[in-house]
Amino acid sequence: MTTLEFKIEINAPKEKVWGVLWNEETYKQWTSIFCEGSYAESDWKEGSKIHFLSPNGDGMNSIIFKKIDNEYMAFKHLSEIKKFQEMPFDDATQEWTGAMEMYRLTEDNGITVLEAKMDAVEKYIDYFKTTWPKALDLVKKLSEEK
Prior knowledge:
Layout: E1 2-10, H1 14-22, H2 24-31, E2 39-42, E3 49-53, E4 59-68, E5 72-82, E6 85-86, H3 91-94, E7 100-108, E8 111-120, H4 125-144
Antiparallel strand pairs: 1-8, 2-3, 3-4, 4-5, 5-6, 5-7, 7-8
Helix pairs in contact: 1-2, 1-4, 2-4
């Protein structure tokens, strides 16, 4: 796997950016860049399970590996979900099981730097290199509104 890194400066306090990232309504907006209608099901507590889902029930079964409010969130991806059911491990998932996805917020004088990192398998690298900047641009737009 390759770790991809993305960064954007946002003219908003980190608390507002954090809210845009993880509040249900705005989460659905910015993640629609990856999959229209995507959403997450979780209690959003460190150590808890989180399901990243498409409207048809396909997605990722993960855990919230580390969470520091308004600063850091890390997910560890474990297995696939198909039609709302967690799938058992197989040769295909073995390739990426344990992949990490991390978000870090740092603020200086009202400007928040959002860094996103994710482990990706070779066949998805080009896709993520084009979609992540679009998703972060939308996080920036939503965070800078009002």
